Structures are given as C-alpha cells and as structure tokens.
C-alpha cells in the first residue's frame, strides 16, 4: 500500500469533536489503498478521554506513534482528565498563551515530533505527509519534514489559522508573525484542504499566489457505522420532545439565549412544561448549571456530561430536534454533520453564511443566535409539529453527501495525485 504519515496532535484516546475527522480518515484510508501511520502526543491532560474511539482501529494494523511534548497539557498529565474551567478563566488562559506562543501553545511538541519522525523515516518510506490543524504546530512540523525529506505535503485546515474567531493578537507583530508562518506553510504545501468554504475563501483572499483549484474543500462528515443501531430498544427514548445539544460551550458559544428562550416558551405556554426536555451531551460548566437554576429549568434540562462517542450518538438518534449554536461563520462544527447523519430536525442558532445554508439544505430551521423571542417561537412550533407527528428530518440524498467513507475517498484522491509527481 501507499504510505502516508499523519501528523495530528489531537487523536484518541483524547475525546471531543476535534479528533473525529482525523480518526475517521485514518480508519477508512486503507479502503482506498493508503496505509496511515499516525504521529501524535502521548499521555496528556485533556477535558475528555474516550478509549472506545481508539478501539475503532482494532485489527486495522495502523501504527500510532506517541511522543512527549512540552506544552500546557503535559503539566497536568497525572490528572488525566481535567474539568472545564470557568469561561473567564479559560479565556484568560487563551489570552496568556496567545501572548507568549506563536503560532500556538503546542509549539513545544515540535522538537519531540520531529525526532520521532526522523526515526520513522529511517524505518519506512512514506509517499506523503498529511498534517491536520489545529494546532498549527502540526503544519510547521509538516513543513520541516517536507524540506528535509523532499516529500509531498498535504495540509488540512479543520479551522482557520490567522482568522480563527477566538484567536487574540496582543500586538500587530503577533498577527504579522502568524501570517508569515502561514504563508511559509502554504508555499511549501503541495495540496491544501479545508473543512469550511469560508476558510477557503479567507485563504485565497489573503494569499494571492494560490489559485482556486489549489485549495480543496472536504467538509466534515459522519461515520455511517456510528449510526447503525439494530435494536431501537437500546436507545434512551422518551415520550417528551427531546432537544439535544452535543458538545461543549466556549467563548461566544453559550446556552444563555437558548435557556432564556426555553423559559419564555414555558412562560407563554405553561402546558409545555414537562413535555419538552433539553438534553446536553458533553462537558458542562458550573456557571451554566447556575443559569439553569436561576431560570427554574431544573425539571426540563437533562445534563449527561461527557459520554463515549457511541453512547453520545444514541442520544442523537433518540432525539427529535438537534440544536447547534455559533456566532461566527468561519468554523465548521463537526456536530452539525453528525446531526445530519442522525437524520433529525436541526435548530440552527447561527448567523448568515455557509453553516446556515448547510442547515437549511438539511431541512433545518435557522434563527439569529441571540434572538430569544425567535428561538422561543421556533421551539413552540417544533413542539406543535412533534405533537402532530409532522416533525420532518433530513432527506436521505442530503445525508449521503457527508458520509465519511466517501469523504475519505476524496482525501485519497488528493494524496494519490502526488504519487505521479
């Protein structure tokens, strides 16, 4: 088989959505003639660990090489899983690391990763290096390997680099240095992939040496294997209309407006209390629990915490409405695509842009992320449709477009074209 070295800081057993895209690429690449070897970090502290994800690679004979790192996640590695800090604390931490580390606070992984890569290159002949970010340190590692071993480099933007909506530039020089590093990586790359159309547009607008065909869009997706539940009695079903959110809240992605809208729906329609459940799968902050108590929603909110991915998917399949909230149009949350795979109605509290178009294509309903009145009215409308059994999900033809097996086939085409160079 053709050999590809995958550079990915975030990889199982780390949990949360950041690992899904890379894991599924690695899982399915062998079906398309590519044998992946993964270069990642070893034991670090993180907000969630999920050993079940790593088991998806059992029997596939895929090498996962783990290295040391010198970054903040290694400081608390003895604790293994750490609680989500308060949003104010986490924001301060981000500001601090953006001040002192360029391009990101994982730069301490570079030396260890390059040393491990040198050892790998002595044992194997790789045809392509595939680097995925964030963190952008992975791109820098890829560029170094491209220069040293004269090997094609394919980079994968899961999120934007310079234009990442939650990145802070303390001074103009900080932004300049990030732009300069990104430019070097892009010039060195043989192929550029993005998960979001808006990220592709931003890259092309800033770096004029790139042509439209130089950047390929391979969106996020869902794994059909995750959605196969033969026995529906295993699903955690309820007679209530269940609205589920899967994932974490951070920065301006907050449940505040949704909670206020749900409380308003109950105030205007008292009979709905006890008939609607808001379900949250993922790490949850104390301040959000306090908000639930303040709005007297304790009897209508079900907080499950972080679940193994298979269990989390069961809740998606056992829900009637799946909710997403974001206030930027540069990110491409993986949860939306798992929502599409689950085939349920989507409530998108998102701004105008690519994600809103995607949700509408999937027969979802979109509202302004901060419009409490509009969100409340939509919840009531959904309940009325639910009661009449008229709550329609996603068309199968839309779902099929985001199958991760097919998307991995698209990646394999990108990798394969560099064999001819």
Describe the protein in words.
Strand 9, helix 10 (286-294) and strand 10 (301-305) form a beta-alpha-beta unit. It contains 16 helices and 13 strands. The chain folds into 2 domains: 2-221 and 404-420, Rossmann fold, CATH 3.40.50.2000; 225-400, Glycogen Phosphorylase B (Rossmann fold). Helix 1 (20-28) crosses helix 16 (404-417). The chain has helices at residues 20-28, 51-54, 72-75, 87-100, 110-123, 137-149, 172-188, 197-206, 256-268, 286-294, 309-317, 334-342, 354-361, 372-387, 396-400, 404-417; strands spanning 2-7, 34-41, 63-67, 128-133, 153-157, 191-194, 215-217, 241-246, 276-281, 301-305, 321-325, 345-349, 365-367. It is an alpha/beta fold and 421 residues long.
């Amino acid at each position: 088989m053709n050999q590809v070295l995958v550079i990915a800081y975030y990889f199982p057993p780390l949990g949360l959505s950041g690992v899904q895209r890379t894991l599924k690429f690695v899982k399915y690449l062998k079906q398309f003639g590519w044998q992946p070897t993964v270069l990642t970090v070893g034991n670090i502290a993180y907000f969630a660990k999920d050993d079940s994800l790593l088991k998806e690679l059992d029997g596939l004979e895929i090498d996962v090489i783990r290295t040391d790192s010198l970054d903040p996640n290694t400081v608390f590695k003895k604790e293994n899983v750490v609680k989500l800090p308060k949003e104010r604390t986490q924001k301060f931490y981000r500001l601090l690391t953006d001040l002192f580390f360029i391009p990101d606070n994982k730069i301490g992984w570079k030396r260890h990763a390059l040393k491990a890569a040198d050892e790998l290159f002595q044992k194997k002949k790789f045809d392509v290096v595939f680097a995925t970010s964030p963190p952008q340190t992975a791109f820098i590692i890829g560029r170094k390997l491209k220069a040293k071993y004269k090997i094609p480099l394919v980079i994968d933007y899961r999120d934007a680099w310079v234009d990442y909506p939650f990145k802070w530039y303390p001074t103009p020089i900080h932004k300049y240095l990030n732009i300069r590093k990104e430019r070097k990586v892009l010039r060195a790359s043989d192929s550029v992939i993005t998960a979001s159309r808006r990220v592709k547009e931003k890259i092309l607008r800033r770096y004029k040496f790139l042509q439209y065909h130089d950047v390929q869009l391979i969106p996020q997706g869902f794994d059909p294997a995750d959605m196969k539940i033969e026995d529906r009695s295993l699903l955690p079903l309820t007679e209530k209309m269940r609205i589920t959110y899967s994932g974490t809240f951070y920065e301006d992605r907050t449940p505040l407006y949704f909670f206020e809208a749900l409380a308003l729906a109950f105030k205007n329609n008292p009979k709905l209390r006890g008939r609607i459940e808001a379900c949250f799968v993922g790490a949850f902050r104390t301040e959000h629990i306090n908000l639930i108590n303040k709005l007297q929603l304790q009897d209508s909110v079900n907080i499950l915490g972080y679940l193994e991915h298979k269990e989390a998917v069961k809740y998606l399949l056992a829900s009637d409405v799946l909710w997403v909230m974001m206030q930027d149009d540069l990110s491409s949350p993986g949860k939306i695509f798992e929502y599409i795979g689950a085939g349920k109605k989507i409530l998108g509290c998102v701004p105008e842009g690519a994600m809103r178009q995607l949700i509408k294509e999937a027969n979802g309903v979109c509202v302004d992320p901060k419009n409490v009145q509009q969100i409340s009215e939509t919840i009531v409308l959904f309940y009325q449709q639910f009661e009449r059994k008229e709550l329609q999900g996603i068309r199968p033809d839309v779902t099929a477009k985001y199958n991760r097996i097919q998307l991995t086939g698209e990646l394999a085409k990108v990798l394969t074209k560099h064999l001819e160079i």
